[in-house]
Amino acid sequence: IRTQLVDMHNYAPDSTFIATFQSAVDTVNAYVDQPIGTLTETIRGIDGQVGPSTFIDLIHDAQLWAADAEVSLAAVLSPRDNVEAGTITMRHLFSIYKYENLLYSIYMTADEIRQYLEYGYSMQFATMHSANDHMMNFLPATDGQQPELAGISFNFTSAAGIRYEVDLRQEAGHRVRLISMSDGSAIDPQRMYKVAINSYQYSGGGNFIPVGLGWDKEKLSSRTICNTANDVRSYIAQYISQRGSITPRLRGDWQVIPTDWVQKARERDLKILNGPSKYH
Question: What is the pTM of this model?
Fold first, then answer.
């Protein structure tokens, strides 16, 4: 068998085929082009790979609202997408949230939230020994090629609703220091907090639950509160629609330190991340 790519530019579309499916195409286009609200500033997906970002914080805000949760855990799902300021349509929401994940609510202690974050940041960030080091966890570069990420961005997870620092001078597993809840109240180490996570991570994706926390199915079941009937994207749409206009903001829940090292490494590593990569 020999295969080949055939240039179709000189072939007219089959009119019967087009007519048969045109109504379906029109229905889909009408759905994805419907306006949801407005965005006052552009948000960039790539920013979520190197620290807090307005792109990810919009997802956090929607998840906290949809699940009526105290803490949200969300990952970098669209590192190559930007959403420009202006009218937001359903088409834009497929850039903000690519996947058909549902939203789950589970109970976690503060230390379990810390462990969860430690596991995610071990995939995302490297240990820095000076300002000249990478902050991102890159594989060793070979033959003069640009380094590739060791992990995949949809496992790069941050939290909202709780304040913390990620110290890249420390080895993986010892980087996260919890400070307080977002409202400034003290963290209660004995309390169970209501946490929103997506169905990918809930079901074991990225190994956050079985490896990061060491939970088996029985323990996860005992901590599960509920899951939503609709996907996360639909709740982001509702969140934006109810507000009409969204001004992107950094929640200020977390930061990566030491600040001077990270500022220099961030610019260097963003140039690499913005280049061609098989790990998006």
Answer: 0.90
The residue length of the chain stands at 280
Q: How far apart are CA 105 and CA 157, in angstroms?
A: 16
Chain centroid to CA 89: how far? 20
What crossing angle do the helices spanning 232-243 and 54-67 adopt, rounded to 10°? 100
Give 136-165 pLDDT, tens digit per residue. Answer: 999 987 777 788 999 999 999 999 999 999
User: According to the model, what pLDDT value does residue 149 have?
Assistant: 93
Phi, psi of 11 (to 5 degrees): -105, 130
- Choose from 5-14, 113-122, 265-274 the range with maximum mean pLDDT: 113-122
CB 97 within 8 A of CB 77: yes
Q: Token pair 């079901």 is at which residue? A: 203
User: Mapped to the 3 state alphabet, what secondary structure does the chain carry?
Assistant: CCCCCCCCCCCCCCHHHHHHHHHHHHHHHHHHCCEEEEECCCEEHHHHHCCCCHHHHHHHHHHHHHHCCCEEEEECCCCCCEECCEEEEHHHHHHHCCCCCEEEEEEECHHHHHHHHHHHHHHHECCCCCCCCCCECECCCCCCCCCCECCCHHHCEEEECEEEEEECCCCCCCCEEEEEECCCCCCCCCCCEEEEEEHHHHCCHHHHHHHHHCCCHHHHHHHEEEEEEEEHHHHHHHHHHHHCEECCCCCCCEEEECHHHHHHHHHHHHHHHCCCCCCC
Give the Cα-Cα-Cα angle 200, 202, 205 (nearest 5 degrees): 45
